[in-house]
Amino acid sequence: MEYVEVARSESEHGELVLRERHPETGGPTVLELRANGVFVMDTAEHASEVALADAALGLVEQPRRVLVGGLGLGFTLDRVLGDRRVERCDVVEIEPALVGWMRDGTIPHGPRLLADDRARIVVADVATAVAEAPPASYDVVLLDVDNGPGHLVHQANEALYREPFLTSVRERLEPGGVVVVWSAAREPELVDDLRLVFGAADERSHEVRLQDRDDRYWLYVGRRDPAG
After folding, report:
1. For the chain, what are the domain ranges?
2. The whole model's pTM is what?
3. How is the beta sheet containing 88-93 ordered, strand by strand?
């Protein structure tokens, strides 16, 4: 396998690298994102990022206002914008370099996505963005800011999977609104915290194929009571 570095950034959060992966046996070139040396995602397998959006959009009758925590390579945003019911999608991304790569075409499909006038990119910590949002700001909140509470790239993100932050998310949802959290592994404690905050939690597994091996990712769903 041959790797070619496309872009690199150093920030207070560490190292962010975008690189191309060229299979020795031929086939399409794959764009891969890594943070502090840890694989985050690539363009070869993004079904679970799409499923993240689908899980929530399918549960809300009018998902007019959506918050996506974590830009990644843009596949969740792309799926959200593909739903014409969506009137606004705020994407909170902590790494300005990643936003820049999306804007300037370093990530080739980026300019098309960000040209949609429903998309608004906010460079911030998602915890801060949620805390500053007014109550009932969103119909859907999608969180894919790390690899899950058991596989953290940034230790500070652990709080994003616990009861206090999830309570803050709940308060920013309209009655009947939905939050979905992406995780690289099954996380029973996350289920427990979602149940404490929302009263119930829906755990869904999603099978994926990663570089010639079978794997499984997980989605965790909480829904605010329609009665408020």
Report:
1. 45-223
2. 0.94
3. 119-123, 88-93, 65-69, 138-143, 173-183, 213-223, 202-210
